[in-house]
Protein backbone atom coordinates (compact mmCIF):
# COMPACT_ATOMS: atom_id res chain seq x y z
CA UNK A 1 0.00 0.00 0.00
CA UNK A 2 1.27 3.46 -0.89
CA UNK A 3 1.81 5.48 2.27
CA UNK A 4 1.35 8.84 0.52
CA UNK A 5 -1.03 11.16 2.36
CA UNK A 6 -2.85 11.88 -0.90
CA UNK A 7 -3.34 8.35 -2.21
CA UNK A 8 -4.38 4.88 -1.17
CA UNK A 9 -6.20 5.88 1.98
CA UNK A 10 -9.68 6.58 3.23
CA UNK A 11 -10.76 9.78 4.95
CA UNK A 12 -13.07 9.43 7.95
CA UNK A 13 -14.91 12.30 9.57
CA UNK A 14 -14.75 12.52 13.32
CA UNK A 15 -18.05 12.45 15.14
CA UNK A 16 -16.75 12.98 18.67
CA UNK A 17 -13.44 13.52 20.45
CA UNK A 18 -13.28 12.28 24.03
CA UNK A 19 -10.34 13.77 25.92
CA UNK A 20 -9.19 12.01 29.06
CA UNK A 21 -11.17 13.60 31.94
CA UNK A 22 -8.09 14.44 33.99
CA UNK A 23 -5.82 15.62 31.17
CA UNK A 24 -3.46 18.25 32.58
CA UNK A 25 -2.33 20.79 29.98
CA UNK A 26 0.40 22.15 32.27
CA UNK A 27 2.14 18.81 32.88
CA UNK A 28 0.73 17.09 29.77
CA UNK A 29 -0.23 14.15 31.98
CA UNK A 30 -3.05 11.86 30.78
CA UNK A 31 -2.51 13.09 27.20
CA UNK A 32 -4.77 10.62 25.46
CA UNK A 33 -8.10 10.88 23.65
CA UNK A 34 -10.55 8.72 21.76
CA UNK A 35 -11.81 9.82 18.35
CA UNK A 36 -15.15 8.37 17.34
CA UNK A 37 -15.76 8.40 13.61
CA UNK A 38 -18.91 8.77 11.57
CA UNK A 39 -19.58 5.43 9.88
CA UNK A 40 -17.44 2.32 10.10
CA UNK A 41 -14.01 1.11 9.09
CA UNK A 42 -13.64 -1.29 6.19
CA UNK A 43 -11.04 -3.90 7.09
CA UNK A 44 -8.84 -5.55 4.45
CA UNK A 45 -5.23 -6.68 3.98
CA UNK A 46 -4.01 -3.12 4.60
CA UNK A 47 -6.43 -2.06 7.33
CA UNK A 48 -7.14 -3.92 10.55
CA UNK A 49 -8.02 -3.13 14.13
CA UNK A 50 -5.01 -2.48 16.32
CA UNK A 51 -4.42 -4.30 19.57
CA UNK A 52 -3.86 -2.08 22.59
CA UNK A 53 -1.71 -2.88 25.60
CA UNK A 54 -3.64 -4.41 28.47
CA UNK A 55 -3.36 -2.97 31.97
CA UNK A 56 -0.77 -5.63 32.87
CA UNK A 57 1.32 -5.25 29.71
CA UNK A 58 4.90 -5.45 30.95
CA UNK A 59 7.19 -3.44 28.70
CA UNK A 60 10.78 -3.54 29.91
CA UNK A 61 13.66 -1.15 29.30
CA UNK A 62 15.56 -1.20 26.00
CA UNK A 63 12.74 -2.91 24.10
CA UNK A 64 12.50 -2.29 20.36
CA UNK A 65 9.39 -0.26 19.53
CA UNK A 66 8.17 1.38 16.33
CA UNK A 67 6.60 4.80 15.86
CA UNK A 68 4.64 5.85 12.78
CA UNK A 69 3.42 9.21 11.56
CA UNK A 70 3.41 12.03 9.06
CA UNK A 71 5.46 14.35 11.29
CA UNK A 72 8.61 16.26 10.53
CA UNK A 73 11.77 14.35 9.72
CA UNK A 74 13.88 17.11 11.32
CA UNK A 75 13.19 19.97 13.75
CA UNK A 76 13.28 22.61 11.00
CA UNK A 77 11.75 20.40 8.32
CA UNK A 78 8.16 20.09 7.20
CA UNK A 79 5.70 17.25 7.68
CA UNK A 80 6.13 14.18 5.52
CA UNK A 81 3.89 13.45 2.54
CA UNK A 82 4.44 9.76 3.21
CA UNK A 83 3.55 7.74 6.27
CA UNK A 84 6.89 7.02 7.88
CA UNK A 85 8.11 4.72 10.62
CA UNK A 86 11.12 4.70 12.89
CA UNK A 87 12.61 2.05 15.15
CA UNK A 88 13.43 3.32 18.63
CA UNK A 89 13.90 1.78 22.07
CA UNK A 90 12.11 2.15 25.38
CA UNK A 91 14.14 4.13 27.88
CA UNK A 92 14.53 3.42 31.60
CA UNK A 93 12.09 5.57 33.60
CA UNK A 94 14.66 6.74 36.16
CA UNK A 95 17.05 7.77 33.39
CA UNK A 96 14.61 9.85 31.38
CA UNK A 97 13.00 11.27 34.51
CA UNK A 98 16.41 12.52 35.66
CA UNK A 99 17.17 14.05 32.25
CA UNK A 100 13.83 15.85 32.03
CA UNK A 101 14.00 17.03 35.65
CA UNK A 102 17.29 18.76 34.78
CA UNK A 103 15.27 21.13 32.55
CA UNK A 104 12.32 21.51 34.92
CA UNK A 105 9.94 18.99 33.37
CA UNK A 106 8.42 15.98 35.08
CA UNK A 107 7.60 12.52 33.85
CA UNK A 108 4.69 10.65 35.45
CA UNK A 109 3.84 6.95 35.67
CA UNK A 110 1.38 7.58 32.81
CA UNK A 111 4.24 8.35 30.44
CA UNK A 112 6.62 6.18 28.45
CA UNK A 113 9.80 7.44 26.80
CA UNK A 114 11.34 6.09 23.63
CA UNK A 115 14.25 7.11 21.45
CA UNK A 116 17.93 6.52 20.83
CA UNK A 117 19.18 7.56 24.28
CA UNK A 118 22.70 9.04 24.27
CA UNK A 119 22.74 8.76 20.47
CA UNK A 120 19.75 10.72 19.14
CA UNK A 121 19.04 11.27 15.47
CA UNK A 122 15.90 9.10 15.23
CA UNK A 123 12.67 9.91 17.01
CA UNK A 124 9.08 11.05 16.88
CA UNK A 125 8.83 14.73 15.98
CA UNK A 126 6.41 17.63 15.52
CA UNK A 127 3.32 16.40 13.67
CA UNK A 128 3.55 12.85 15.04
CA UNK A 129 1.51 13.71 18.16
CA UNK A 130 -1.41 11.35 18.65
CA UNK A 131 0.30 8.66 16.60
CA UNK A 132 1.01 5.12 17.82
CA UNK A 133 4.07 3.55 19.38
CA UNK A 134 4.05 -0.22 18.73
CA UNK A 135 5.71 -3.13 20.51
CA UNK A 136 5.19 -6.50 18.82
CA UNK A 137 2.16 -5.09 16.93
CA UNK A 138 0.53 -3.85 20.14
CA UNK A 139 -0.02 -0.12 20.71
CA UNK A 140 1.90 0.68 23.89
CA UNK A 141 2.16 4.45 23.54
CA UNK A 142 0.55 7.52 21.98
CA UNK A 143 2.99 10.25 20.93
CA UNK A 144 2.62 13.20 23.30
CA UNK A 145 5.58 15.57 23.66
CA UNK A 146 9.33 15.93 23.88
CA UNK A 147 12.17 18.40 24.10
CA UNK A 148 12.69 19.27 20.43
CA UNK A 149 13.22 16.14 18.29
CA UNK A 150 15.74 13.31 18.27
CA UNK A 151 18.00 14.74 20.97
CA UNK A 152 20.40 12.27 22.58
CA UNK A 153 19.44 13.15 26.18
CA UNK A 154 15.71 13.77 25.69
CA UNK A 155 13.70 10.91 24.20
CA UNK A 156 10.10 11.34 23.05
CA UNK A 157 7.37 11.12 25.65
CA UNK A 158 4.29 9.00 24.96
CA UNK A 159 1.11 8.39 26.91
CA UNK A 160 1.54 4.87 28.36
CA UNK A 161 -1.49 3.02 26.93
CA UNK A 162 -1.49 0.29 29.60
CA UNK A 163 -2.37 2.95 32.18
CA UNK A 164 -5.53 3.84 30.23
CA UNK A 165 -6.82 0.43 29.08
CA UNK A 166 -9.97 0.47 31.24
CA UNK A 167 -10.79 4.05 30.25
CA UNK A 168 -10.30 3.23 26.55
CA UNK A 169 -12.57 0.16 26.75
CA UNK A 170 -15.28 2.00 28.66
CA UNK A 171 -15.34 4.87 26.14
CA UNK A 172 -14.92 3.09 22.82
Automatic annotation (TrEMBL):
<keyword id="KW-1015">Disulfide bond</keyword>
<feature type="domain" description="Peptidase S1">
    <location>
        <begin position="1"/>
        <end position="172"/>
    </location>
</feature>
<keyword id="KW-0720">Serine protease</keyword>
<dbReference type="InterPro" id="IPR009003">
    <property type="entry name" value="Peptidase_S1_PA"/>
</dbReference>
<dbReference type="InterPro" id="IPR050127">
    <property type="entry name" value="Serine_Proteases_S1"/>
</dbReference>
<keyword id="KW-0964">Secreted</keyword>
<dbReference type="InterPro" id="IPR001254">
    <property type="entry name" value="Trypsin_dom"/>
</dbReference>
<keyword id="KW-0645">Protease</keyword>
<dbReference type="InterPro" id="IPR001314">
    <property type="entry name" value="Peptidase_S1A"/>
</dbReference>
<keyword id="KW-0378">Hydrolase</keyword>
<dbReference type="GO" id="GO:0005615">
    <property type="term" value="C:extracellular space"/>
</dbReference>
<dbReference type="Pfam" id="PF00089">
    <property type="entry name" value="Trypsin"/>
</dbReference>
<protein>
    <submittedName>
        <fullName>Trypsin CFT-1-like</fullName>
    </submittedName>
</protein>
<dbReference type="InterPro" id="IPR043504">
    <property type="entry name" value="Peptidase_S1_PA_chymotrypsin"/>
</dbReference>
<dbReference type="GO" id="GO:0004252">
    <property type="term" value="F:serine-type endopeptidase activity"/>
</dbReference>
<dbReference type="InterPro" id="IPR033116">
    <property type="entry name" value="TRYPSIN_SER"/>
</dbReference>
<dbReference type="GO" id="GO:0006508">
    <property type="term" value="P:proteolysis"/>
</dbReference>
Amino acid sequence: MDGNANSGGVVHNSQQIINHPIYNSRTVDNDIAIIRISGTFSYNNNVRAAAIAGSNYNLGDNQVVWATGWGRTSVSGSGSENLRHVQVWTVNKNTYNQHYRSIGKSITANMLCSGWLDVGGHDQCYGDSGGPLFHNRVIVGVCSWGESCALARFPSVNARVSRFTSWIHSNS
